[in-house]
Design brief:
- The chain has 95 residues and is an alpha+beta fold.
- The chain has one domain.
- It has a 7-stranded mixed β-sheet with strand order 1-2-3-4-5-6-7, with helices on one face.
- The radius of gyration is 12 Å and the shape is globular.
- It starts with a strand and ends with a strand.
């Protein structure tokens, strides 16, 4: 379940937040850990989408590496948060 924090930030009852911090940057956070990532804006069938680099979730902003399993969970969390906001995580692209 999600709740709005601001017009561009949401919080999940599962303990994570997704926020827009700049036009093309978002931040995913769990407790004290966060990942700031570039999200290119697009549109598919009238829905705003975000394209994110495949390696966007490889490490926390602190530099700590993230396991492949955890990366998959974070990707899904971000997709779910965007869907709640009426947006979509369209695709992950190569850098």
């Amino acid at each position: 379940m999600f709740t709005w924090i601001t017009k561009q930030s949401v919080q999940s009852s599962n303990g994570f937040k997704v926020a827009t911090i700049e036009r093309f940057k978002k931040r995913y956070s769990e407790g004290a850990k966060s990942i700031t990532f570039f999200a290119d804006v697009g549109s598919v069938a009238g829905v705003y989408t975000y394209d994110v680099a495949k390696n966007a979730f490889e490490k926390w902003d602190s530099g700590e590496l993230i396991s492949k399993e955890k990366q998959k969970q974070i990707r899904q969390n971000v997709a779910d948060a965007l869907e709640f906001q009426g947006l979509a995580l369209e695709r992950l692209y190569e850098d």
